[in-house]
Write a structure and sequence with these properties.
Shape: globular
Number of strands: 14
Radius of gyration: 16 Å
Low-confidence stretches: none
Helix content: under 10%
Mean pLDDT: 96
Strand content: 35-45%
Structural class: mainly beta
Distance between the termini: 30 Å
Largest sheet: 6 strands, antiparallel
Strand order of the largest sheet: 1-2-10-7-12-5
Length: about 180
């Protein structure tokens, strides 16, 4: 597995080694040995799977507050998505900055987000799917959303038309949220 650091401390792009032959391909999508070698010490406890039926579906910016914050390991299993990690750690030198990476079923890249980051995903094709592991169980009481249109984040989504849930449309700006990172 290859590991690429990003400009945000702890956010990593992981590319598994893939072995192809006449039957198809094989890869290790998850290995504690590989993740430990890159400094990822998470004990993942839940897997989530999301399907978006249309191009332009935006989900996010989502996170869970402490003490139920979640690190995430995200990969695309169908289609193409643009995945975003937004630094919500108030004491971080990269506070309110973000990175994005195109994840596809073909490139098999994965994005690791440590705790303290918001997460968003934009479907770039019809019929896309992502799967992601988290290191803390879902906690409705700690579940939060930040507005994807927050001018202080100024994220250029690059989509002409986006399909957004009511929850995400009504999300507060970061400065008005109770984000506790």
């Amino acid at each position: 597995m290859e590991c690429e650091k990003t400009c945000l401390e702890g956010v990593l792009i992981l590319t598994p080694r893939t072995f192809y032959d006449e039957r198809g391909w094989f890869m290790e999508s998850y290995s504690t040995r590989n993740l430990s070698a890159f400094g990822i010490q998470c004990a993942f406890v839940q897997d989530n799977h999301i399907a978006s039926v249309q191009k332009g579906v935006l989900r996010g910016i989502h996170f869970q507050n402490y003490p139920h914050a979640q690190a995430k390991l995200v990969r695309c299993t169908r289609g193409r998505v643009r995945d975003y990690a937004i630094d919500l750690r108030k004491q971080s030198p990269t506070y309110r900055q973000f990175v994005s990476v195109e994840l596809t079923a073909e490139n098999k890249k994965q994005l690791f987000l440590p705790q303290g980051f918001g997460h968003a995903v934009l479907s770039l094709t019809d019929d896309s799917e992502i799967e992601y592991r988290v290191d803390n169980l879902y906690s409705p009481e700690h579940d939060r959303t930040i507005s994807y249109l927050d001018p202080e984040l100024d994220i250029p989504w690059g989509a002409n038309r986006m399909i957004v849930s009511e929850k995400d449309r009504n999300a507060p700006l970061l400065r008005d949220s109770d984000c506790n990172f």
